[in-house]
Structure to design on (451 residues):
């Protein structure tokens, strides 16, 4: 067990790697779920679909990227292969792919088209490659792992720089009467890094963890320093615990959905730790794929912005899914909503005012000064190369507390209870793991939208 007196020193020694630092700056990017499911009106395909069903008549990946960029997002991840096994690129590994579809008379390649559009619009391009494959006859055998690595190699060597590999651990072999497939995640991760050294891996992967739900909700206190994970299972790894009660506790809590994953009280029961930021994944509609009857489930602007502030504004990454329709385009309603999100964020950016701040001798109080006006939020972050340290803070305007919060991390947007007219704010850090390191503070005048 780690000596109790050394624990804070240990926690603050955990910092992000270079890939994690880069994705923290990106903050907000898109998911695109697109496959045979788009045409069969399903969320999970059976693997028995004919390639002929994939036939978008008016596909336009430029339209996707223009809409994604208008929303303020910085990248996009495409479902190159979902659980049905249908590949959106002309792979050499299987006939269950776009080469045998009517799209462009079998000459199409959605992966190539989208990666080119991303370069055109200045977006980063990422890939989702489902380990579960309901079409491949090798699934359930050791040979399947070779098959998967061959597909991964095609994607990571044929389409330029890939910023993200998104992995899930779905394994429904029982539904297909096949043996349970043991995924060779270690090989997947090492192959990805060998082929794309700057790639960030999310999901059942070592760089970014799933937040634990698909509804856009993060924890009140989202910590980056957490107990060591079994990435492939999205479970907290048992380590150095022999007490029977602790074993019961771990059995109950080895789950990515637990509410407290990083407080001192929680970490005290573990000995090994890692930097593992959370990612909120959510769809703009009810489903991940396009379904015509789900038009009325498009999330409202305020709902989406609440998700944004609850994620990007609360030390999380956000991946927002937009499903292309059967024409191969984003629907007009989705494009409109994305533009509205971007307008909201651009208005907030325009409200940032010139200010200066002074860190007082105790390093726990920061005075922020600016020309007197109405203000209603600050955006700030810690220097995470020094780890995540702040545990609770308050913001005061003329001795009145206008905001009370817990963690900060790489991104915090603190929206006050109400706008205040003042020429100064005071940020008081009430509890911190050693002295805090603030990277940036931005004060916003009243004028940005409020949720």
């Amino acid at each position: 067990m780690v000596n109790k007196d050394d624990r804070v020193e240990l926690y603050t020694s955990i910092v992000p790697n270079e890939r994690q630092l880069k994705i923290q700056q990106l903050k907000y990017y898109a998911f695109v779920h697109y496959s045979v499911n788009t045409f069969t009106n399903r969320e999970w395909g059976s693997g028995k679909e004919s390639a002929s069903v994939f036939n978008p008549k008016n596909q336009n990946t430029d339209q996707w990227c223009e809409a994604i960029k208008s929303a303020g997002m910085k990248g996009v991840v495409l479902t190159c292969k979902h659980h049905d096994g249908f590949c959106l690129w002309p792979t050499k590994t299987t006939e269950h792919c776009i080469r045998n579809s009517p799209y462009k008379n079998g000459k199409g390649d959605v992966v190539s088209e989208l990666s080119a559009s991303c370069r055109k619009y200045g977006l980063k391009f990422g890939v989702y490659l489902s380990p579960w494959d309901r079409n491949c006859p090798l699934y359930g055998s050791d040979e399947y792992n070779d098959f998967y690595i061959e597909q991964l190699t095609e994607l990571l060597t044929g389409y330029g720089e890939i910023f993200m590999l998104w992995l899930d651990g779905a394994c429904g072999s029982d539904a297909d009467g096949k043996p349970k497939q043991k995924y060779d995640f270690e090989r997947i991760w090492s192959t990805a890094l060998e082929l794309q050294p700057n790639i960030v891996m999310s999901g059942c992967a070592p760089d970014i963890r799933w937040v634990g739900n698909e509804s856009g909700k993060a924890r009140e206190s989202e910590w980056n320093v957490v107990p060591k994970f079994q990435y492939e299972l999205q479970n907290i790894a048992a380590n150095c615990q022999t007490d029977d009660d602790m074993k019961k506790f771990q059995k109950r809590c080895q789950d990515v959905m637990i509410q407290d994953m990083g407080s001192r009280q929680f970490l005290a029961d573990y000995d090994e730790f890692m930097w593992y930021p959370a990612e909120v994944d959510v769809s703009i509609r009810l489903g991940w794929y396009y379904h015509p009857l789900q038009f009325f489930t498009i999330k409202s602007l305020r709902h989406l912005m609440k998700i944004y502030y609850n994620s990007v504004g609360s030390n999380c990454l956000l991946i927002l899914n937009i499903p292309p329709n059967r024409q191969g385009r984003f629907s007009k309603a989705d494009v409109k909503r994305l533009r509205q999100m971007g307008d909201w964020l651009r208005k907030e950016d325009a409200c940032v005012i010139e200010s200066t701040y002074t860190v007082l001798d105790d390093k726990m109080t920061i005075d922020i000064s600016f020309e007197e006006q109405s203000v209603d939020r600050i955006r700030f972050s810690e220097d995470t190369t020094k780890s995540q340290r702040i545990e609770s803070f308050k913001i005061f305007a003329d001795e009145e507390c206008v905001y009370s919060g817990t963690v900060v991390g790489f991104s915090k947007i603190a929206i006050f209870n109400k706008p205040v007219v003042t020429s100064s704010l005071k940020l008081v850090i009430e509890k911190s793991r050693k002295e805090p390191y603030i990277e940036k503070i931005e004060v916003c005048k009243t004028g940005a939208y409020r949720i």
In short: Residues 239-254 have pLDDT under 50 and may be disordered. The first helix runs from residue 7 to 11. The radius of gyration is 23 Å. Residues 140 and 181 are 4 Å apart (CA to CA).
